[in-house]
Design a protein that fits this description.
Helix content: 40-55%
Low-confidence stretches: 445-450
CATH class of the largest domain: Alpha Beta
Mean pLDDT: 78
Shape: elongated
CATH architecture of the largest domain: 2-Layer Sandwich
Structural class: alpha+beta
Order of helices and strands: HHEEHHHEHEHEEHHEHHEEHEEHHEEH
Largest sheet: 6 strands, antiparallel
Amino acid sequence: MIERFSFLAPNFQSQEPRELALLSIISQSFFQPFSIEDNLLVILTALTSGSGVGFNRAMLFRTDGDKLRGEAWLGPRSAEEAKTIWEVLSTPGIGYVEIIEHNRWLLTRQPESLSQIVKPLVYSLSQDNLTIPATSAARKEMLLVQNARQEPLIDPKFLEAIGVEEFLCVPLYAQDEIMGLIILDNAYTKRHIESKDIKLASLCGLMAGNYMYTTLLHNKMIEMERLAALGEMAVFITHQLRNPLTAIGGFTDQLLTNRIGEAKKRRNLEIIRKEIRRLEDVVTKLALFLKVDVRKTVPFDLKSTLLGVIQNPDLTMKSGGIEVHLDIEERLPKVLGDPTYVGEAFRNLIANAMEATAPGGRVTVQGGREDQNWVVVCVQDTGKGMPPAVRDKLFSPFFSTKDKGMGLGLLFVKRVMEASGGRIEVDSEVGRGTSFRLFFRSGQERSAEA
């Protein structure tokens, strides 16, 4: 006998052990395309997952330089509201996604949300006389505060905002860097914060701190990659534009001297026109590459798109005695993507294949089902192929095997395929040609769900 289990428990079960409930909710963030704010909301949700399971309220501070700034406060505003919320969230069959969506609504409703109370609170982490809650973050210590109104180390404004006698401060840090602070209380159930609560809260705090730290590093890496790409693009554009502009400027200066004959004037104008068209080609290809934005994929007939590309006069004029053979499986299901972008991607691939193939050679475009979910199209030439060192760089920006290539065509194809939910693979061997395999999601999958 074989039993199958999902990684995610779809429904919230109030009778589950608290440890399992916390981890089940937090695990949702690993499977969702959430922002850092949403993932922090997931962790706050795990800490306030209902009566008898978690804390009643969770307050979040995040660091901003040497400041600790209030950002969000998750929880009901009154005992009556708490009772209503817990009754709704205890409904049989309620899912974690519904709980998280409900908590997002709690955070964003204006002006009633608790977050409006915490956002004005800002504390320095560098001054000598720190007060609670800043003390917990600065010293990286969890603090359980009881009889709060008797404690002189608590900031009066914070005490007025939180309005309870007992609360727990959980610092969020990773790699010795302070990322923020979570403050928890049981304002409505009045349940005492026990050692087991503190252990569970510390687990969530460690997860939140490390998540925030890795997100920060990831964002820095993306920014560095973006700056590097901008630098490469600046060099590329300078290289592509310098020669045409220099030629246009030089031949224009000659035309303005009035000391050249009509034949030379005509020659100069033809050269200027040629260089302008070269510039137009650069700008067009750059614009095409930069504007890839497939917001919504739709099912479309791949064979019709391929026929339109192959029969395009611009492509047939470049054939030069090279045969382009189309072999598409009968009754091929529709695929998902943007037909306009996909057509341009195939035009690019087929044109490249024709340029790589000697006169009398052949380019084959073959398509069929890979399995019930995927359709694959292979564009194969009989050219000279390429070594692994060149093949591995094909999708790098501004890398080209052509003398006057821009190095954007294959990267454009890759972006189109990824935006369509597919992928592209390349296989090449010196002396035996090159083949590109494009994998598309079958449109039947979406039709069956509709």
